[in-house]
């Protein structure tokens, strides 16, 4: 009989932290997770073409299927010297688990995996644990998982940190590029060239106009757009550049499409630059990224991660919040959105599967060199997962039965 204690789950999390797994290089950590699925006695264990790892615990009847999801990849650690504790040692100190992935997301991944094993097939429906690749770069893994159809859940629980609350959605994220073009030339004779930088002032004015006019949602707040990068080519300082690429980070509301974003920028530019100077051109496009999974699956990805929102009074949200409760005091858990994007955009925003989130950890520690997981909070959250799984399974089954 495997040890399903909280301490065993944290030991597993420490093992995972010790295996660096940036997007595209999750193979070793995937192997470790698959081995843990086997050791914990999952009924089915597999790896799909994208490199996602999937474990299933079969239910005792024909109840709804609950998918528990975390991701295998992590962001870069930065300068290890800037960390209080080494980023890949999984140090336990001062009541915290420290390291890259401690709360985003290898700590919660371990807790969810063990919580699934705790259910032990006693629930009527299947519990599927699917940990996905490339979440940090737009969610290729979850997108592939659901498009392939090997897993067909009725409800999804995302293990991104919620600090004990129940999260029901978030804005999406898009990356848009504005490309300014001219003609390169030697800087000693600027009259022979068309400097792409000359367009920059009016383009920035147009982008400020777009940024100031964003839609808003009562729960998710406003969409936001910011210029986050400017690349100039050629990069030599004695050459008039022929290309300037501006990167826009756009936090978008659910339902927003790539065409919507490109059209908004294009319209603003047409107002500010109705006639382009001779020798110049402007292009607006979605950023693309060539992504290759560790299994060799290749995709050229449009960098749009969808947003989603489940109504606060949705039966699954209400049942989930009641099952979690409050760590201190009485009553149901607080229901709110995340401030950042998750793979829930693919499960709910695109595929329409009711999706909620619950995990220990504070958002302010994510992607920093202070990343840590409070062990007391993690212990409490581990104890709440079985009740949460059962509650959303029951609610989803009721909804399915009345459909």
UniProtKB/TrEMBL annotation:
Organism: Gaopeijia maritima
Limits of the Peptidase M20 dimerisation domain: 168-274
Protein name per UniProt: M20/M25/M40 family metallo-hydrolase
Record-linked PANTHER family: [LYSW]-LYSINE_[LYSW]-ORNITHINE HYDROLASE, ACETYLORNITHINE DEACETYLASE
Entries under Pfam families matching the protein: M20_dimer (PF07687), Peptidase_M20 (PF01546)
Keywords associated with the record: Hydrolase, Metal-binding
InterPro entries per the UniProt record, alphabetical: Bact_exopeptidase_dim_dom, Peptidase_M20, Peptidase_M20_dimer, Peptidase_M20A
